[in-house]
């Protein structure tokens, strides 16, 4: 255990000394911390499995030059430290911390592992960002913020390693608790029955099945009412509110949507009833995750592979020749069964970079 972790633990204990956790709109700070802990357990398990499954040599063979492997181990260590920090903070505050679950990750090799890792880090950033406004206690807010910035660095590092722009847009997209849970729950196979039930629910899943130019094909999963698609809209979530996309129903829960201008990087699209808002009250499916790479992403991809920041990736040259035309990659939308297929599509697109 690193020294820095030890002092963090004392910080967690000090931070949580006694006082009962506060509550806003039915969600307590303990709920938020346990929600964060749920995600940190998932991320920690993901890297632990991946580093068990794939050797240093496997990473090298997949084109990840040193010091990528040791940096990845540091990322894994960060996630474990976040788990321990939140567990301690909750315990010290007199709340019951959730324990680790069993997980199911559709990763089969280094490339799919890193592609999924990049998506998970992006979801982590969006989760902390979306939860920030619900945290009552300043001390917890600062602690959550200090985790958020590290998740953002992980995200940027993995994106760069995959030949994607590290920071493809000026603002990250906040996701609500239910949106994050919708995206994360397919990876959670089973949890200890002693785990506190969090005040979250999953919306019907939304998966991206294919894309052509700026058109994405979406498919809603179980629980979605396919019989009446009248008045449904597609919303891309941004910090300044939804950007509405043209949505064409194709029957059987299938839709086609056009990615609007101004959307880039790891983006999230939900189906909503009506187009005045995109909230828990009117989201009917999603989010689906869409990686939108615009020409600006050549900022990452355009660098020579000798550039130190991206030296881990031999693949940077590909987007160096990026045309101004946006390209679109699919990421896991969320139906567990279709997940592998969709991820394969995602990784397939990534294969160009790797
Ligand atoms: C925030 O939580 C800390 C640790 O539990 C506590 O010491 C502090 O009084 C709380 N602040 C507020 C404003 O409730
Ligand atoms: C690790 O390998 C196991 C066994 O093949 C597999 O079930 C799991 O999904 C893999 N996990 C990762 C993160 O690669
Ligand atoms: C995880 O899976 C193992 C093997 O199937 C099982 O014994 C264990 O109870 C599961 N743990 C949880 C937390 O669901
Ligand atoms: C279909 O949904 C729209 C919008 O929610 C609603 O106005 C309409 O009454 C519904 N039609 C049927 C047949 O349920
Ligand atoms: C990349 O490297 C090549 C050859 O080493 C060089 O000619 C080119 O100018 C470099 N490009 C950039 C963007 O540094």
Automatic annotation (TrEMBL):
Residues 296-324 are annotated as: Disordered. Pfam families: Ferritin_2. InterPro entries: Ferritin-like (IPR012347), Ferritin-like_SF (IPR009078), Pigment-catalase-like (IPR052965). Keywords: Signal. CDD domains: Ferritin_like. Residues 1-18 form the signal peptide. SUPFAM superfamilies: Ferritin-like. This is Uncharacterized protein.
């Amino acid at each position: 255990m690193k020294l820095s972790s030890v002092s963090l633990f004392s910080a967690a204990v000090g931070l949580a000394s006694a006082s009962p956790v506060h509550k806003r709109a039915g969600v307590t700070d303990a709920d938020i911390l346990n929600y964060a802990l749920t995600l940190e357990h998932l991320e920690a398990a993901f890297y632990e499995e991946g580093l068990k499954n794939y050797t240093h040599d496997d990473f090298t063979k997949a084109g990840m030059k040193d010091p990528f492997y040791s940096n990845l181990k540091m990322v894994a260590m960060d996630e474990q430290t976040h788990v321990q920090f939140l567990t301690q903070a909750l315990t010290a505050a007199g709340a019951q911390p959730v324990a680790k679950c069993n997980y199911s990750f559709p990763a089969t090799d280094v490339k799919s592992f890193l592609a999924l890792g990049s998506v998970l880090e992006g979801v982590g950033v969006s989760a902390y960002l979306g939860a920030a406004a619900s945290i009552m206690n300043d001390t917890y807010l600062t602690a959550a913020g200090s985790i958020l910035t590290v998740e953002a660095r992980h995200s940027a590092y993995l994106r760069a390693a995959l030949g994607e722009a590290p920071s493809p847009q000026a603002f990250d997209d906040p996701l609500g608790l239910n949106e994050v849970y919708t995206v994360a729950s397919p990876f959670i196979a089973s949890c200890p029955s002693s785990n506190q039930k969090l005040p979250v629910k999953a919306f019907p899943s939304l998966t991206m099945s294919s894309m052509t130019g700026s058109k994405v094909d979406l498919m809603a999963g179980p629980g979605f009412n396919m019989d009446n698609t009248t008045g449904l809209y597609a919303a891309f979530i941004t910090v300044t509110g939804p950007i509405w996309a043209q949505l064409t129903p194709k029957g059987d829960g299938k839709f086609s949507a056009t990615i609007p201008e101004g959307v880039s990087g790891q983006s999230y699209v939900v189906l909503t009833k009506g187009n005045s808002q995109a909230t828990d009250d009117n989201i009917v499916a999603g989010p689906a995750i869409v990686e939108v790479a615009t020409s600006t992403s050549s900022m990452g991809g355009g660098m020579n592979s000798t550039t130190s920041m991206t030296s881990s990736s031999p693949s940077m040259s590909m987007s160096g020749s990026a045309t101004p035309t946006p390209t679109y990659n699919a990421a896991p939308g969320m139906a567990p069964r279709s997940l592998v297929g969709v991820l394969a599509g995602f990784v397939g697109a990534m294969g160009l970079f790797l």
